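*** Backbone structure tokens ***
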Amino acid sequence: MELIPRVQWHLLPSAPEAYLRASSLPPLVAQLLYNRGVQLDKIESFLTVAHRLEGNPFLLPDMTQAVARIYKALLSREKIAIYGDFDVDGVTAAVVAVEGLSGLGGEVVPYIPDRVKEGHGLNLIALERIRSQAVSLIITVDCGVTDIIKVDEARKLGMDVVITDHHLPLGDLPRAVAVVDARRKDSQYPFSELAGVGVALKLVQALFYQDSRKERLNELLDLVALGTVVDMVPLVDENRYLVSTGLKVLNNTRRLGLQELIKQSGLEIGKIDTEQISWVLGPHLNAAGRMGGALVSYRLLTTQASDEAQGLAEELVRGNKERQKLTEEVLNKVKRGMPLREKLPLIIEGDEGYPVGVIGLVASRLVREFNKPAIIVNIGEDLCRGSCRSIPEFNISLALEKCRDLLVTFGGHPAAAGFTVKWENLAQLNKKLMNLATSQLSHLDIQPKLTIDAEITLSALNGEILNLIQKLAPFGVGNPQPIFLSRGVEVVNSRNFGNEGERLELKLRQNDVTWQAFDFNSQKPAEGIPDCIDIVYQLKKGLWGAEEVLRLNLLDFAAG
């Protein structure tokens, strides 16, 4: 068979000799740090994940005003509502805020909006419902910074609002008591990439500032790890510290619901890492918000009853299976029409039958497969809701900002965003977004690429190097798991396995060093693979019988 790369291989340039020498580390490890933008004076704190990566919460804008208003509410026994969001970041942020304020003696009620009926952010029906419970202070988590009109409506209803958010503000800020967001232009906070749950933790940290409650803060870090990883914010600087510390708490979590979900999803407490959060725990927790109400996930994270924990975990497992089925159905329907739009720079597809809960997942899958921005729209009679995912070359949140005159609501990040648009404006919006994508992308070569950290021989992967590479964890956005290239590798034997033989196992040898390698995606037949190949791969843990071993996870390979 003619074996050629599936995607372009992009090998990152070698680090400068001065960097390699000054790092005092093996050259391969220094190269990995250089690739991740770690400056020489930051190497120690990166590898040790030092506590000094944490920022002072009072450097966040309006934190002093937020703390003053919340303590006023606590002292006067006001009822406080925590207004979250329906994704994992929003739900975990709500739990962090509720448990933090409850620990200070506050009377706190959570509110998680319904994805389908209410959408993201504040809405008038929710505000009226909250006010009917005698609430006088609303604290938002993972939302609110763009809800200028809704904050005014809350004030008219007699409620103060404290906003904590991590989304990009619009030109004007809501007229709230405080707007705590590191993305504000006037922010003095040293790190702007906290997730919503990270900002919620900083609020609690500020509230506990003079109240020696370090242990209580640590108990919240399993939630912070979950929300931060699933929201795909960069795992660098303070996020790196929060997730690294949070993983230790998660792997010893006291939360009965998490214990049960980990067990029912086939994972093992003590061995949870960022990959298992991203691909297993996150989707299960998100399934509630996508398929019904996110309060199921909220209850799972807070329950103190074993029976309830078991039932809620079972509900999330069922919901995730249904979510997977719906996602595949919508994805297949969209892909059937792709040949007609193959040359367009932007995928835009809408239908009345696309469930709001899965359109973001479908857009993500399309971006991964076609390496183009994708927008999937649920079309309603009056309002249409769109979910957008994008590539580095096209800032989707900025594109929506340029279309704001056509939108009812919008918000998000450069790579992921959402919007609501009136039905009569949808066609015009589609045209404007397509024109923006054409002008920005048509002259670029945006073929899928595999970014490779270093070219090495298999013998370079010795015990010392492997241990040092593990110190780069936790891996995620901004700190990806290292990818290596090895050329001229001998194929000792090969076989297909799996239900339909779609997976491939290879035994590879180079300079008397032998590794087991697995290809789970290409569906290449074992017959006809050349005796010598070039491989691009990551190191992964796997089981050999009952023993845990390292193996090569092949991302691509070609004739050597």
Q: What stands out?
A: The chain is about 40% helix and 20% strand. Residues 475 and 481 are 5 Å apart (CA to CA). The radius of gyration is 24 Å. The first strand starts at residue 8 and ends at 11.
